[in-house]
Amino acid sequence: MLKEMEDTTLVPLAPVIPGLSFRNFRGEEDCAVILAILQDITRADGLKRTDTLEQVRHTYTHLTHCDPAQDLLFAEIHGQPVGYCRVEWRIEQPDTLILWSIGFLCEQWRRKGLGRAMLDWAERRLRVVTAGQLHAQCLFELFAEDNEIGKHALAQAAGYHVERQFYTMVRPDLENIPDLPLPDGVELRPVTPADYRKVWDAMQEAFRDHWGYCEPEEKDYQAWLEDPQFQTDLWQVAWQGDEVVGMVLGYIDEEANRQFGQRRGWTEEISVRRPWRGRGVARALIASCLRALKESGMSEAALGVDTQNLSGALRLYEQMGYRPILCNTTYRKMA
């Protein structure tokens, strides 16, 4: 098998389409190609994506367990890119190997067998790059947004099952924000660069209890620092002395707001470390972040949530005025 897959552009199930060929990633010049494909599928599927060249470059500068020169495949028709897929792997706690792939295909080349052929390539490639790893469980994983009807159908036809669903939730206004105090001895303080590592470490500690958690690497921390949405002026971080208690890391996606004619801010990375849970910290931090977004000129707020989160996050967000507007799905199957 390894010998067969040394050619990373070999696609055994490729349909017969005149001019069809495959190639790997050629470097930064292909970031613009990826963006063009994403913009095509955004239009075709009516997605609320706002990809930018800066975001694509950021992603491909900070890949983990993915070598784009071999782990990314473009499909071309007469030399014109019409789709791509990429693979990477990760270790989900406590000992599950996740073989993840993502793929996009321009609208006019769908329903011709090309998507299935590229998914087959992705699964084959993932088996090669993880050969020799021994884990308690090994699973293939796909993700599909609500409106990606073809991707849902492809996953189901390929034997994947619904593993988890996630809501995007929106609080449609920033009025009547409750005044919720933090516990005694806990305070909000501005975050300085000297605090970044503490905030990161506290966030990772808090999320270890969550479904799908993977222990991050140092490059993940660097990617976080360089993320376009790293906007510390909107962060709400609670401290007790020198210890981080919890956080809500707010941000504003200016490009999305411009594109969709909205004034939406985001309340994300909502997390509280174990010793302080059940004391109203998350509620108080969300309320504080909502006020910060309102002061920044926003008129609504959004977040993402695991619908099966055992901490009761979904109920909390509903109580804080958020309502689901979109449901996205994680699919898995045994590898």
Detailed description of the structure:
This protein has 335 residues and is an alpha+beta fold. The chain has two domains: 156 residues, 3-Layer(aba) Sandwich (Aminopeptidase), CATH 3.40.630.30; 160 residues, Aminopeptidase (3-Layer(aba) Sandwich). It is 31% helix and 30% strand. Strands 1-2-3-4-5-12-6-11-10-9-8-7 form a twelve-stranded mixed beta sheet, with helices on both faces. A hairpin with a 2-residue loop joins strand 8 and strand 9. The radius of gyration is 21 Å and the shape is globular. 27% of the residues are buried.
Features:
disordered N terminus, single chain, 335 residues, Aminopeptidase, 12-stranded mixed β-sheet, 2 domains, 30% strand, alpha+beta
Please specify the SSE layout and strand pairing.
Elements: E1 20-24, H1 29-45, H2 53-61, H3 68-71, E2 72-77, E3 80-92, E4 96-105, H4 114-129, E5 137-144, H5 149-157, E6 161-171, E7 187-188, H6 196-207, H7 218-225, E8 235-240, E9 243-252, H8 254-260, E10 264-272, H9 281-295, E11 300-306, H10 313-319, E12 323-334
Parallel strand pairs: 4-5, 10-11
Antiparallel strand pairs: 1-2, 2-3, 3-4, 5-12, 6-11, 6-12, 7-8, 8-9, 9-10
